Amino acid sequence: MIRRHHLPFGAEYLGGGRTRFTLWAPAAGGVELVLEGGARRMERGENGLFTLVAEAPPGTRYRYRMEDGTEVPDPASRFQPEDVHGPSAVVDPACFEWGDEGWRGRPWHEAVVYELHVGTFSPEGTYEGVAERLDHLVELGVTAVELMPLADFPGLRGWGYDGVLPYAPDSSYGTPEGLKGLVQAAHERNLMVFLDVVYNHFGPQGNYLPLYAPQFFTPEHETPWGDAVDFGREMVREFFLHNALYWLEEYHLDGLRLDAVHAIFDDPERHFVRELARRVREGPGRDRHVHLVLENDANAASLLRDGAAAQWSDDLHHALHVALTGEDSGYYADYAPSPVRHLGRALAEGFAYQGEPSQHRGGERRGEPSADLPPTSFVAFLQNHDQVGNRAFGERITALAPPKAVRAAAEIYLLSPQIPLLFMGEEWAASAPFLFFCDFGGELARAVAAGRREEFAAFPEFSDPATRERIPDPNAPGTFEASRLDWGEREAPEHAAWVELYRTLLSVRRERIVPLLSGTPGSTAWRTVGGRGLETRWNLAGGARLALRANLGPGPLGGFGSPEGELLYATEGAQDAERELPGWSVVWHLAEGAA
Description:
Elements: E1 10-15, E2 18-24, E3 31-35, E4 38-41, E5 43-44, E6 49-55, E7 61-66, E8 71-72, E9 88-89, E10 113-116, H1 118-121, H2 127-131, H3 134-140, E11 144-147, E12 151-152, E13 165-169, H4 176-188, E14 192-197, H5 209-212, E15 217-223, E16 226-229, H6 234-250, E17 255-258, H7 272-282, E18 291-294, H8 302-305, E19 310-312, H9 314-325, H10 339-349, E20 356-358, E21 364-366, E22 378-381, H11 385-389, H12 403-413, E23 419-423, H13 442-455, H14 465-469, H15 477-482, H16 493-513, E24 525-529, E25 533-539, E26 545-551, E27 557-558, E28 566-570, E29 580-581, E30 585-591
Parallel strand pairs: 10-11, 10-23, 11-14, 14-17, 17-18, 18-19, 19-22, 22-23
Antiparallel strand pairs: 1-2, 2-6, 3-4, 3-7, 5-6, 7-8, 7-9, 12-13, 15-16, 20-21, 24-25, 25-26, 26-30, 27-29, 28-30
């Protein structure tokens, strides 16, 4: 059973054309509700909550007016038809007729996640454009779609991490009903839908909270985006807890990916992630599978033991990337001396950094022990929006490494017992870059463009100002358009071959590995071979053993142990290899357990 979520703030439609409006504005002496027919004074209650019940049927546009005459949108707006500075709209969640009553989700160990940006995934750039291409994902072997953030952001173009109205799906992609239609279409195909949510900051344009609720933020903690959100204040905490439950219940989503939880400053004993996990278990998680996934640069394994299903494995990505490309600048410096060793530890124990000092962070220790956690506690990937889009020119890995190397990396991460994540277009080696784009106005637009170019000044390849000037302007419409996938190239032979590879790997995963993942323990054996070779063995459910041997270099490499069990998969040319593997090759064996 999927429930409707009732919000304690925002515009809650009561039926019969009436709506209850609630705003937390502790710094305001008075607030008026502005409707199309005029303004009415709201009643101030305890804790700075202003409320009013008024005639306002679905579709009614409204704002809140402060004592100085400033009119602001609802911070809990369910829809912003005219973007972040415009009026909010009353929404009746019951007007959409759901048809997925029997949907109970899927267990986490079955997840194969496909991350996409709604605006650039299809030519239409809409929820409907995504829905029309879901069959491709099903045929590929994907089981979960992850949408980059939808919370309303300024302008028509953006990644979504500059959102300022967390309850309002951005109108540039369609209506709330359009998003619900996408979720329903996915459920009809046995696909889960996850949403990326940002609770650690608000964007720099369109955030009106400081005008009437400065208590939302605290100067006690500094973040890259300014003062931190004050999670120690109960009203702020409830705002985000309800936001998460709202997405899960009102939109029937199957899970959330929480952005940068290392920038959520909270009491460790009642950390927001722990409390959210409890609320989910007691709420939507009672009736169906609901999953919470973290991004956490601090490698805090404790949060994975207390409710979150998994964490994105940046360590694994960075090690793979360095092994394939040889890059050693920025955070890649931590992995450059021995990328295969870091990769082995990330595959076997979850985190490569479990308390060791980080050169990139000036010697600061990073991470917590994670070897006891099951491999499904970690999301493995070769590409995602960050690792592609935060490059100056948004290059995908296929533009940076030889095809054989990229193939070997895919053969590792798609078959490992960790949860794989693909980034849109990866499966056909899409030629389109994924650039950083936004749609800010005025001086902020110029500052972002200049800041983006200055950000890369410390990298040797961008020391020349003329080279930095070539970095695309994030606000230019062409930057956004260049990032849109070209679905036509998928049929070209060189791209179709990649699709077939991914389809084959995910078929092997689905048929042979996934049935053995539930209940898989931690503590995996691993060793490096000759600096660029790797052997790893996992104990799976029922006594089965999965073994990986990989040569992550261009030439042949000896010194590997004898394979155990049945040959599960091998790079072409490595099927009969025993103690010596060809360059850029991967071999998987599976030894079945006792019946």
